[in-house]
Write a structure and sequence with these properties.
Blueprint lengths: L2 H11 L3 H22 L3 H17 L10 H39 L6 H14 L2 H12 L4 H8 L3 H29 L1
């Protein structure tokens, strides 16, 4: 790391936000390129870069100014990428398990057509708090991504993604419960 960058990091550690902007300018292109090579999904590149910079700023006091700031940023980004990939794998596995459950339910004598599942889902959505219903509308009716939703709701993108994941899990459990009740009544 050069002396200029060391001085910038020290200024940031002293509370100088302008110095952090200079560090962002120095590292943003290389960080985005690094992320794009690891996870070539356009909206996630900016999102992970942004989260990396936020994490770095929040933890700047723990950073040794005599080490390579760029390497530290890339390590942060790598961990965020890994977390995103794990989240995607969990989501995919949950969806697969849900569809398998629906198929097994159908084979076991429950003859739910798509209309009935949609009715169940709509009933479950109506039970959600208003703010969660709004989040679902933004995602699925208006097609907004997590960046747009976080700006509109005044929340972090991580909050948006986590909340959507929790909502999906709750809806899945609710629909499964309604399927089980319907099976008992049949």
């Amino acid at each position: 790391m050069d002396k200029t960058e060391t001085a910038l990091v020290k200024r940031v550690q002293s509370g100088d936000l302008h110095a952090y902007e200079e560090l962002l300018d120095i590292h943003s292109h290389r960080l985005r390129a690094f992320i794009a090579l690891k996870l070539p999904i356009s909206h996630l590149i900016d999102e992970i870069a942004h989260e990396s910079f936020i994490f770095a700023h929040a933890n700047i006091q723990k950073f040794d100014p005599y080490t390579d700031f760029g390497k530290w940023l890339r390590a942060i980004a790598f961990n965020l990428i890994r977390r995103e990939v794990q989240r995607y794998r969990r989501k995919t596995m949950n969806e697969k398990n849900f569809f398998e459950h629906v198929l097994v339910s159908n084979e076991a004598g429950f003859d739910a057509d798509n209309d009935e599942l949609i009715v169940f889902l709509e009933e479950c959505i109506k039970r959600l708090p208003d703010n969660q219903q709004k989040l679902l509308r933004l995602k699925y009716e208006e097609g907004e991504n997590s960046i747009e939703m976080s700006e509109e709701l005044g929340q972090s993108r991580a909050w948006v993604r986590t909340t959507l994941c929790r909502i999906r899990s709750a809806l899945k459990k609710c629909v499964e419960s309604k399927i089980a009740v319907s099976q008992r009544l049949s």
